[in-house]
Amino acid sequence: MDSVTYTGTTGMNGITGTMGSPAGGDGAIGGIASGPAEATTDSSNTETAIGGHGGSGGAGWSDPNNPMNGGPGGSGAAGGNAIAIAKTTTGYAAGNSATANATGGNGGFYGGFGWEGPPSALGNGAAGGSASATATDVNTLGGATANTSADGGDAGSGQGAGQAGGAALKSAASATGTTAAAVAVSDGGSGGGVTNDGTGAAGGLGGVASHTTANAVGITNAYAQINQYGGVGGSASTANGGAGAASAANNATTGTTHGGVLSLLEDIAGGGGGDSNTATGGNGGAGKGILNVNDLTAAFQSASITGNTYVDGGFGGNGKTVGAGGTAMASTTITAATTATVTAYATATGGNAGNETVAGTAVAHAGATGNAAVTVISGGSETGAANSAGGVGGDAIGAGATGGKGGVAVATGNLVGISLVNLSVSAQGGGGGSGTSGANAGAGAGENLQSVVTGTTENGNLSLQQTARGGAGGTSDTGHGGAGGAATSDLTYNDLLNSTATQSASLAGYATAIGGIGNYGGAGDGIGGAATVVLTITGNSASLVNANGTTYAGNSQNDGSNAGVAGAASTSVTATGGTVHIQTIAEAGTGQTGTDSAAALGTGNATSGYVDTQAVSFSSAPKALMTQIQAQGSTVVNGTAIGAAQTAYGGKLPTFQASDGTVAYGIASPSAAASTAVLNANGNIKTAFGATPSFFAMGEVGGGHASTGADSETSTSSIITQINLANLAAPGNLVFGLYNGEAVGNAAGLTGVTLSVTANNVALPGLSVSITGEQGGLSIAQQADALFHNMGFGGELALAATGTLVIDVSLSVTTDQAGAGFYGDFIFGDPPTGVSARPGTGFSGANAMAEHHGVLGSW
Question: How much is the pLDDT for 448?
Fold first, then answer.
């Protein structure tokens, strides 16, 4: 092993001022460190170069008799540059390596002026030294490893204008062997600060990092990676903060194999802006990374290729006026053989804005944008992901000020493969900035994705995933909390628009939207972000299509003292193909106010398959009786089948639906107008509830046959409610009302209706009814109509004063003719003390007509 280190001399500090010569002297420049570019026969060679630090300025003379006669301090001197070159060329079967490390010297600091003396002249800090590192390893007998590191020196602080951090001019690693690994790292130095006494224009700029490259050439395996980071801007007190350095790389990692595994990675970040106590913070540096791999141009192609690009924008500096965060852009594109396994990733995160340091009246800076894109032009089996996030908005201080909005994220993906394509894209909106001392919080960024994923296979498996996330609102101690960002994920994919040769045998579409949290504010909580999904997937008549849409609306993150409004959720999914599997989920946010509405709709067009729907609403209002309501349904696809589920708090049921494959509508704590309308139209139910009842929920359940076929199909719909009995004013006996029943289509096509009502998983006998054939001369349709015709049930389930009660109302409908089905409504609650349903014999086919004419059932 051969390892050598070259160190530049440290510059001498400036002399201290004297009575005869009161000014402090300037420091001396740090020495350059540079070694020869020579190779040894050792299996491992390391060269390290460290530039000398610049000397600091000398302190000014202090007059002991008259402090006002103190002299100015001297300026610091620049740090020395560093150049390191390592090379290994002798072959070793066990492997060899080459490593080069270069570190620029730090710039010298200014010398302080004489004790209590006036700053009659400004002593400057000095720039950091540059760094350059090169490592080359060639091994014809075994594995090769090359590593480089180039770090620019930090600039020294001064009273005058801040100086720039040292540049990382070059970091180049190259490895060639049976296996090869090359890693190159570069980091710009920090800009010089401006001291408390300084009146300079700004802190120093962050040092630039550039020309960072890694090349790996192997037979079975090749790995190349770069890490390139811009330097941080210098800080200041009364001056502006320095800007962070931008960082960009374009195809900085390269490599090839001979039918092996190729992996390339780029990690890039802009430098953060410098802070300022009373002026403007420095802007964060932008980050940009582009990786474009065309393996078809290589002499031999790789069997597996992975490309990764990670990019971060620099943070904005804090200040009276905040610095902007740096934007981030990441792009990965791969072209490979049609037999190759390809993985492509791109991740971009915009920089956060700086935070206010003193009270202001403006809107703080928004977070920066993030933009990520993945593309595979050709390959066999492919996986890709593009993930982006916006930066967080800046914090604000003082009445009349507002925290910055979150930054918007953008992401796209397109993969063209043969047997498999699995692509996911995600965009996360940045969070809003916080507010203190009377400032309002900033809103989270909304995200709106419109069919940003696409791809093709050749009779293979295609999976497309698209996720939008709204940013969270910021918090405020005494102002208004920030609203959560809305999220929309709209994905339409039609495989029939592709040629027959590039249509997929199996398609899967996933669209997800997650609303941002509305956050706490002393003057009012922020609104939760709404979430919306519209998903449409179309395949050919022989394809299997899986379509999954999910929405989660944002909560209003309140503390129980401020009325926060929850976000609404809406999911709509349509799938067409040979066989379709549809799942729709909508989950409303929680809040003290608002309807907490959730709606899930699924439509299937195929010869077989299923449609599952689910909607959920919650309430976090103080003393809430109904804490949760869930609607879910499942139906069979043959031709066209539609499933619908909706939940909400307050108001009335949606328009009665008697045609869908499955219907599940639930309203928790219905309005007085809605419940009164039911009682006025159904005298028996009104009698069962008494004069002043408390209504828990109402709903519609039902289902029917798909649009074609004579197969036996069962549709099931359920409404599940969760009740906090401790918040019930005067517990009595649970009472149910069934009404508005309607059998549709040919009555002979209705072959079974089963009603099941459970309380904490225990069946209520009078409401556990299975109708499977003619009884008492009544058809199944007539019996079901009677069951849901002005029927009141109750009298034996006493409600407790504490605990949780879960009521599950489920209806299964079995049919064997197109268009046949059954649907009905229900309402339940707690009548006044002393009122209960008149005892009866319960529902059965034998007494159905008696029930139909007014006898109340019981359990």
Answer: 98
Instruction: List Cβ neighbours of 622 (8 Å cut-off, separation of 6 or more).
Output: 560, 592
Predicted local distance difference test score (pLDDT) of residue 591: 64
pLDDT at 749 > cutoff 60: yes
Copy the structure tokens of residue 714: 């069962």
Mean per-residue pLDDT for 268-276? 97
DSSP assignments along 737-798, one per residue: EEEEEEEES-GGGEEEEEEEEEETTEEEEEEEEEE-S-BTTB-HHHHHHHHTSSEEEEEEEE
CA separation for the pair 168, 163 (Å, rounded): 15
Nearest CA to 123 out of 155, 161, 69 is that of: 161
The per-residue pLDDT for range 154-213, each reduced to its tens digit, is 988 887 778 899 999 999 999 999 999 999 999 999 999 887 655 557 899 999 999 999
The Cα–Cα gap between 180 and 363 comes to 52
DSSP per-residue codes, 62-118: --SS-GGGPPPPPPP-PPPPEEEEEEE-S--TT-EEEEEEEEPPPPPPPPPPSTT--
Residue 856: pLDDT band by 50, 70, 90 thresholds? very low
What DSSP designation does 570 have? Answer: E
Nearest to 16 by CA among 117, 154, 113, 130: 113
Only one residue has tokens 């790995």, namely 223
Helix (H) or strand (E) holding 852: helix 848-852
CA distance 14 to 113: 13
Integer Cα distance of 495 and 5 in angstroms: 62
Dist CA 657 CA 647 (whole Å)? 15
Reference 816, options 724, 719, 722, 749; nearest CA is: 749
Q: Which residues contact 462 (CB under 8 A, 6 or more apart)?
A: 421, 455, 456, 495, 504, 506, 507, 508
> At a CB cut-off of 8 Å and minimum separation 6, what does 195 contact?
110, 157, 158, 159, 237
251 in the Ramachandran plot: left (φ > 0), alpha (ψ -120 to 50) or beta? left
